[in-house]
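Work through what follows:
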Amino acid sequence: MIFKFFRFIIILLFSLIIAVILSLVFIYHKYCNTEDIKNYLIEVVYEKSDLILNFDGLKFSLPDRIYLKNISFVNKENNEIVFRADNVEINIDFINFLKYFSIKINEIYVEDASAFLYKKDGKFNIQRLIDSFLTPGKNEMPEMSLKNFDISFNDIDSKNYHRILINDITSAKKILSKDTVFDVNMNYQNSFINPINFIASFSISYDDNKKIEIHSFETRIKDKKITLNGTLNDIKKLSSTLNLKTSTSINLKDFIKLNENIVLDRFEAPIYTQAISSNTIKIESNIKELNTKVKIYYDWNKKIVERAEITANQIDVGKVYDYLNEYIKNFSGKTDIEVRVEKGNQVFIKASSNDLNCKDIYDLFDFKNTNIKVEITPTFTDINILKATAVFPHGTITGSLVDTSDYKSERLESKLNLDGIDIKFNAVIKNLFKPNKSFNVVFNTSKFDTKKYYEIFNYFNEKLSIYPENKNSRYHITNRPVKIVWDSSDFILDPYVTAQKIYIRGDISRFNRYDLMDANFKIKLINGNMKKIQESIKQGGVYELLFTPLTTIFSLNRTGALKFESSLDLINFSDTGIDFSLNNGKIVVNKFYLNSKEFMVYAKGVLNIKTEEIDMEEYVINRKDYKIGALPETLSDSKGRPALAFKIKGKFNKNEIKIFDATDITNLVDKEIKESVKIEE
């Protein structure tokens, strides 16, 4: 009996197996012919993506394998190929096929493929496929294996280009879960990022939010490792909590396409992202090791950084070497930086340092422990050097400086001290980047040491002359109009002239070296003296031209009074001044005058430096008459005072002197002395 029962069971099982096989054969021939599968696949692809599926060969292998050769997806509107692959192997859910007569893909294998994607007017050329993928609760992703998959993506809206070369991607579903785990090895680059390779492992959870868990993400930049992990909580809202870590210091220039080096020390930092509107994502991070906080609002429709805030405290200025070396060199110290970006292109920068040490790019000054604040905005720049010490061969300068610009004009204000000399300096540059750029410069100094300033001028000239002229520089002054105001106490022209005050006014229409300059200058000295007269005459030049007539009339006057042993060696004056013009090496003396208790002097004429020629008239009246009537009338003015009028003309070293009758010069000299040289405030 038992034997009969087992025999029945065996026959039944065999019959069932035969029935299943016959059913499979029937289904295969009725529903699984190549043409039906081809049409079904074309229909499904079009429904999901609006793309047309083409392929050269299709093979169906029982029970669940489909092989495709030379496959491509084509945009129906413009016939552009969106995707192509040499070989695609698909593993379907056969039970689902038997039950619903529809294909559900369990696994897909792709080899040697390319994708050509772009976005225009805010939409992708595979927009329907993306929308389908992001639909909650649908389109569970199959397991996959991709090899040698080249993806190019052109963002036409933002003019950005991306390139992804997938060396290998494999995915597998977690047991008892809808999550899929991906292992990725790929290369990536875009318009801003240099080519990098990274290896990553992450999982996608197919709940309503489609959460992505990044288990590991690793890339190396010149053998320096960067890792990332965390969770993308909501793909649609781009909500994520990530952690970024570097193994050692990195240079962002190796990663991002920058012209300058930006070196970051080793750090670990959390990164938070959140979509705050349909167009905008917020990215935040706090990098403790770098004392840096970052907050970025990015508008992906406009493809701009809508707003960004970056603050960094006590950053080593050496880390931003390439941003500073255009302006300074050999620098060290710490700085606080705050950067704010608004409306996509408006950049606001604040920076400060209490201990900046550096040299300027022209190697003029060596700055020590500089306290500086810098503010740069879209409408102005403000550089505020609160306290600085600068050492150079001619002394030590301490003080402060403020440089403000609205990009139309620039204003510099400084208070300095040069080895005990107080200096106030103000300058305004108008029409900064226009052909009619001009300069207004104002100096106020506690001492005018001519020799010291002359040596400093030569030092600057020698240092700067070795550099090529940059006509595009905002400080390019050659052949530009310049106005100069310089007021100073304690004028010294060692060893011959001193004065309590000096006033200088310069109106330069074309700034250049003196033999190429077009300009007018007015100089006035108050309450001073001219000493060592006899010694200065031996120096020749201007001293000889000025003092020889004075000593001549002085000697004649004293001789007439029978005072033979005295000589003129000191002149105390209340004021003296000169108004002259420069024109291509020609000095036109519109007026020179000297007003002292003993002398009144007025002169005018031309000195040509290029041809070494002189054509001058000079009028001298000796106010102190030792013996009235002792001199002939031609050497006396209308008041009977000793006087001398003459003209000198010819070469500097060979000229002719013509003496006039001085009787009628009284009113002329009195008038010119009274009018002096007008100095505008």
About this structure: Residues 1-27 have pLDDT under 50 and may be disordered.
